[in-house]
Amino acid sequence: MSGIYVVYFSGYGHTQRVAEYVAEGAQASLIAIDNNGEITEQDWERLNSAEGIIFGAPTYMGNVPWQFKKFADASSKVWFSRLWHNKVFGGFTNSASLNGDKQNTLIFFQTLAAQHGGIWVSLGILPSNTTAATREDLNNLGGSAGPLVQSPSDAGADLIPAGDLATARQYGVRVAEITARLK
């Protein structure tokens, strides 16, 4: 294990699929936030001892869902003890729309990481924004803070665009590389 954990909430399975791609790239372990916004005590211990933490959640109504917010609020106990200070952080999100105000979710993640005294890893991939670009290209939605993923509302997680999933995997690789450099 790399000492990196992807902690995520997934309402319909789309975010879980993206989390799996990020974790694959980072050689990380997954921690799912349940439908009540909770993780186990063992999961808290894993996050406290982690070298890196990657947040993931869908964007609902322009921000994180309440389940992720409950997890974030519960991390105030960790904040008080500074247990996540100087850890490497990253984050990703998805929504049904191409934009869907996903940037707000990434800013929420960045702020949470900063509150904990963490070090944020940007996406680091130029956008695919030429006339020849397709949804199969890396960073075709043009993110910079982290991966932006579009999950069609009328389809299952198996129809997430390949370029978005490849971007998620590559982001995991980047977070792992930066975590290793800072170790």
UniProtKB/TrEMBL annotation:
Claim: rRNA-binding is one of the keywords in the record: no
Annotated Pfam families: Flavodoxin_5
SUPFAM superfamilies given in the database record: Flavoproteins
Full protein name: Flavodoxin family protein
Named cofactor requirement(s): FMN
Gene3D superfamilies: 3.40.50.360
Species this chain originates from: Tatumella terrea
Keywords: Flavoprotein, FMN
Keyword Flavoprotein assigned: yes
Highest taxon in the source lineage: Bacteria
